[in-house]
Design goal:
about 325 residues; 12 strands; alpha/beta; single chain; about 15% strand
């Protein structure tokens, strides 16, 4: 039994929180140059993320980052030429601060549209390749977890992931249209919605890690309110185990940076980017900063789920919405 600085007792269950950064410096809808029209924003925001994490670590707060890098464009071409410090800093943080690198797939491809040979090759090349852009090549280590591009997933991939040695797939269970599987299964209780799930299709089995975004934080009101609500349920016995709140969005998202708002608004939640999110929960004794791999090592899947649909992080869990977005129609 623990006494908390914010008042109240707990039977020891923790709310684990992870921050994930999806790095893909090549954008089909933007320019391919190192400026605001291209990948200049990616570099600026990723450097900001690293600086924020380092600052909190220096203050004694053990916050970690989870990185899913695309290899062919980001780690092979763009970052080595324009921002080699990012690769060096993530490697340093992995060694010194417990940051974690998980897979995304070698070349930003739609893995659920690949043949078996292409699929397995995309994972193998993302680990190591002769151009030195694999996670093992760049960082010296990785977790056997994947956050696929646009969180695309199709049921038959369970067996392929198992064949490739992948232990878990991060898929959105989100309240907003950037979702994956929330709308195609019965609603999960909180104890399950924030824990690994076992997915089986025919002879294939893979763990699914429910994943959330900064928009879910806003829907909850604030990160402090969200984790406090989960912990209140733990104290009341409505949740009888640890939970893991994994926040993952694009590393170039403006939501990781402070927003340009009038001074009096800066004191409100959700306006100070990653720094504000960490500050909201850094003093809570029931919060443990974690990573997907770190959590999975001590927390096996809590239940089985199944869906037979193809899912992706487009509107309403679909694929078609990417082609149907108004700005994509305008571009073409």
């Amino acid at each position: 039994v623990h006494w908390h600085r914010d008042g109240g007792f707990s039977m020891g269950n923790q709310v684990h929180v992870g921050f994930g950064f999806h790095v893909n410096c090549y954008h089909s809808y933007r320019g391919d140059t190192c400026d605001a029209l291209g990948f200049g924003g990616d570099i600026r925001i990723i450097r900001h993320i690293i600086q924020v994490l380092d600052t909190w670590n220096h203050r004694g707060i053990n916050v970690k980052g989870t990185w899913d890098f695309e290899n062919a464009y980001s780690l092979e071409t763009i970052l080595p030429q324009y921002a080699p410090d990012i690769i060096a800093d993530v490697k340093r943080r992995q060694k010194e601060n417990g940051d974690e690198n998980i897979l995304m797939g070698y070349n930003n491809g739609a893995m659920s549209a690949m043949t078996e040979e292409e699929f397995l090759s995309s994972i193998e090349l993302a680990v190591t390749n002769d151009k030195g852009s694999g996670l093992l090549d760049c960082f010296g280590g990785y977790e056997k977890i994947i956050r696929p591009q646009e969180v695309m997933f199709t049921p038959s991939e369970a067996g392929r992931y198992q064949q490739a040695g992948i232990e878990a797939v991060c898929l959105y269970y989100s309240c907003i249209p950037f979702d994956a599987f929330r709308t195609v299964i019965p609603q999960l209780e909180d104890e399950d919605a924030f824990n690994p799930l076992r997915y089986t299709y025919k002879d294939g089995e893979v763990t699914i890690m429910p994943t959330y975004s900064n928009s879910d934080i806003m829907d909850a009101g604030s990160l402090r309110y969200w984790v406090s609500d989960l912990h209140d349920k733990q104290q009341r016995g409505e949740i009888q185990r640890d939970v893991f709140l994994f926040i993952n969005i694009d590393a170039d998202s403006f939501l990781w940076e402070p927003m340009a708002v009038p001074g009096f608004l800066k004191k409100l939640p959700n306006f100070d980017g990653l720094n504000g999110l960490i500050a909201e929960i850094a003093d809570l004794s029931f919060v443990t900063f974690d990573t997907p791999g770190g959590y999975l090592k001590k927390h096996p899947p809590v239940r089985d789920i199944f869906f037979g649909e193809d899912v992706a992080d487009g509107n309403f869990s679909g694929y078609a919405s990417w082609a149907e977005k108004p700005f994509n129609r305008q571009i073409w």
